[in-house]
Design goal:
GMP Synthetase, Chain A, domain 3, 3-stranded mixed beta sheet
Length: 114
């Protein structure tokens, strides 16, 4: 009987990772980071390494470290993920136009004018 190697492990799909990231929220905004449009790029590499490129609604966000840790933990729960790298980028800057329609609807439900 042969042993399983890392290359034999099925890699997660981007869709699975985006779905997992929907549990991550900015505590000041009642919408997840995916529907807010904060995830700019997501890449799955051989061996189960995941690179997440994201932004925040503003530079100097006081909960950046918490959001980063939550994003890493959310991705690590997806089968096949071995390592997660979260990088924050500021270009292009985030605007409400990056939000999904569902995100905009959620914001309106909480009284935000989006």
């Amino acid at each position: 009987m042969s042993e399983a190697r890392d290359t034999d492990i099925e890699l997660p799909s981007k869709e699975e990772l985006y779905e997992a990231l929907k549990i991550v929220r900015d505590p000041e905004i009642p919408v997840n980071v995916v529907d807010l449009g904060l995830i700019y790029n997501l890449e799955v590499k051989e061996g189960g390494e995941v690179d997440v490129e994201m932004t925040l609604t503003s530079m100097g966000c006081p909960v950046q470290d918490m959001i980063q840790a939550d994003a890493e933990l959310a991705c690590m729960k997806v089968p096949g993920v071995k390592k997660v790298n979260v990088e924050f980028v500021w270009s292009p800057p985030w605007t409400p136009a990056k939000m999904s329609e569902d995100g905009k609807k959620q914001m309106r439900m909480f009284g935000f004018n989006i």
